[in-house]
Amino acid sequence: MADWGLAAGSLAAISGSPFSAGSAPNSVAADPTGRFAYVVNSYYAAQSVSAYAINSSTGALTEISGSPFPTGAYSYSIAISPNGKFAFVANQWIDRVSAFTIDSLTGALTSVSGSPFPSGTGPSSVAIDPAGKFAYIANVNSACVSAFKINSTTGALTAVSGSPFPAGYSPCFVVVDPSGKFVYVANYGANNVSAYAINSSTGALTAISSSPFPAGTTPVSIAFDPTGKFVYVANADSNNVSAYTLNSTSGVLTALAGSPFGVGARPVSIATLKIIR
């Protein structure tokens, strides 16, 4: 598609967009190579993941043979392991996490033996540490975070000792910082963010001093800038974004001057871009 006259940072629709998915698509993730994209279809009758090959020249999507791939009831969130071998889906209505292997040639998904794996009540978000050793699940209906060790060969999940770990009221989103040292959870019912240090050997979580950290009303999404220095939280019911500096040693969050910053109505997701200067 020609981009004549487009200003820097503006968007142009890709030919063929929008691309067909299942009912109520709710979460999207791309594999680390940028060749495949996966979309969770959350409607109870869909309960699946749509999988696509990404055209590297145009960005257009072509559905992969066998897609959509079945999951559990109310599939809510998907995460891809950093090595691109595995995909994990939080199934909110059955309190389970589905695990899949990813075919490196086709992008097709195959259910891991033993999947889906038990989590807490109402798993709503999945995060993988940068090393691909551990998976963390925010359980919105049981005020906790489940932690699992990922089998590097099979993708099977084994609960970490001490899991699940307490969080705030209605934890709906979980993320691991780029260094792999810390976990942060948005507690939308408590209007704050819980923070934990990761034991690099076991994957166990220890609450960080001063946690939880205040956010706006109904925090629902967390993002880091690519350097890992700053953290941003979308607050759906206060129409703003909380911004923090991240102490790389302690994991403590400190609000930036002027935070929270106003945005449009009901922000529910946030992402950052790497700017090359």
Notes on the structure:
The chain has 277 residues and is mainly β. A hairpin with a 5-residue loop joins β1 and β2 (36-41). The chain has 2 domains: 18-162, YVTN repeat-like/Quinoprotein amine dehydrogenase (Methylamine Dehydrogenase, Chain H, 7 Propeller), CATH 2.130.10; 167-277, YVTN repeat-like/Quinoprotein amine dehydrogenase (Methylamine Dehydrogenase, Chain H), CATH 2.130.10.10. It starts with 24 loop residues before the first strand and ends in a 15-residue tail after the last strand. It contains no helices and 25 strands. Residues 1-5 have low confidence and may be disordered.
Keywords for this entry:
277 residues; mainly beta; Methylamine Dehydrogenase, Chain H; 5-stranded antiparallel sheet; 25 strands; 0% helix
Q: Could you give a short description of this structure?
A:
By secondary structure, this protein is mostly beta strands. Helix content is 0%, strand content 43%. Strand 16 (171-176) and strand 17 (182-187) form a beta hairpin.
SSE blueprint:
Layout: E1 25-30, E2 36-41, E3 48-54, E4 61-63, E5 69-70, E6 75-80, E7 86-91, E8 96-102, E9 109-111, E10 117-118, E11 123-128, E12 134-139, E13 144-150, E14 157-159, E15 165-166, E16 171-176, E17 182-187, E18 192-198, E19 205-207, E20 213-214, E21 219-224, E22 230-235, E23 240-246, E24 253-255, E25 261-262
Antiparallel strand pairs: 1-2, 2-3, 3-4, 3-5, 6-7, 7-8, 8-9, 8-10, 11-12, 12-13, 13-14, 13-15, 16-17, 17-18, 18-19, 18-20, 21-22, 22-23, 23-24, 23-25
